[in-house]
Design the sequence.
């Protein structure tokens, strides 16, 4: 169940960050409400996941997966492109998540 909590936390954070862009500096009501609800859900779900995961591992997975997902959202929905250095950096973040998942006893 803790993996479900962490996954929901990641998805909610990505939704909130995407809506943050759409809120236009909190000048648009609907995206602004989505930001508040999404971030609230993200933190509640992350708190639930922290009942099982070590803090550093959960936060690394949550933030790293969020960074990678937001890069994709930015590309698909906002037409933002990463340069080579950005792509390599995000690839390294994903690689770090994989290393934690496969080799850290704190992730299991």
Sequence:
């Amino acid at each position: 169940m803790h993996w479900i909590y962490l996954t929901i936390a990641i998805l909610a954070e990505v939704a909130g960050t995407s809506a943050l862009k759409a809120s236009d500096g909190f000048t648009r009501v609907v995206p602004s409400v989505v930001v508040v609800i999404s971030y609230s859900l993200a933190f509640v779900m992350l708190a639930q996941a922290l009942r099982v995961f070590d803090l550093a591992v959960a936060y690394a997975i949550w933030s790293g997966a969020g960074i990678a997902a937001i890069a994709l959202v930015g590309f698909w929905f906002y037409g933002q492109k990463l340069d080579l250095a950005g792509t390599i950096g995000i690839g390294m973040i994903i690689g770090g998540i994989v290393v934690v998942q496969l080799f850290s006893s704190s992730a299991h």
